[in-house]
Amino acid sequence: MSELLQYLITGLGGGCAFALVGSGLVVIHRVTRVVNFAQGSFAVIAAMTASTLLASGLPHGVSETLAVAVGAGAGLLVGLVAIGKPGTPPGASLIVTLGLGVFAYAVEVLIWGDQPRSFGGVPGAVDVLGARFQAHYLLIIGATLAVFAGMGVLFARTDVGRALTACSANPYAAKVVGIDVRRMGLLSFVIGGALGGLAGVLVTPIQLVTFDYDVTLIVGGFAAAILGGLMRPALTLIGGLLLGVAQALVAGYGNAAYQMEVALVLMLAVMIGQAARRPIVQEEVA
Fold this sequence. Notes:
Elements: H1 2-32, H2 39-55, H3 62-83, H4 90-112, E1 125-128, E2 131-134, H5 136-157, H6 159-169, H7 171-176, H8 181-203, H9 214-226, H10 233-253, H11 259-285
Antiparallel strand pairs: 1-2
Helix pairs in contact: 1-5, 1-6, 1-8, 1-9, 1-10, 2-3, 2-4, 2-8, 2-9, 3-4, 3-8, 5-6, 6-8, 9-10, 9-11, 10-11
């Protein structure tokens, strides 16, 4: 029982990283209809930046905050390249983000090298019903829940959030009422960069991060986001947590080498299920 509880807690912590990356994908896709394949790079860049700032003597909190800001800045740069030119179709922007994600590898290796990095998180361990795990997992879970609650408030209670939602629902109508759709699209990339950056700084104390760790994050994040059709942050959170727990159970009771396959199988199953339901819905509408 204690072993199972330990796997559940650690799985929830890892799933939070997938949920944050996936939520960045959702925010960007809702506003721009672009699937941002550079999303995982924001996490790696922020993680590497935080490790550098901490090594230079800056305290925790300041280092992680600056690193998340760097992730947001990276998101803005990707947005400027991907959707900065008016009239760029989402398919072309998708290819641009894929190319920028690959280009980020070269930048990361040039600046930080190819060796894995990590840094200390919340010190100590916690015992719950015989299960022992790092206290940092509680920070990851608490911060993720707070971020998703904040996103709910942003989209439901603020003018900026309503403008983002309007661009998501009907960009042409949003233009008519005076909303700058391009600016809202760039803002969505900034938010996506910040969410990815937060995932990076939260997960690095429990996971060695290398320049290519974005592959794991983008696969897991996309698998979580696809559960809600790349449109619903709440379902993305649920998908990320379920995926994290599933991977932890596979690693604990089976073979850790199959964790990536778990994400791919989950993503494929959801996509097949959605494709199977779509003709039924269309037939009912007809």
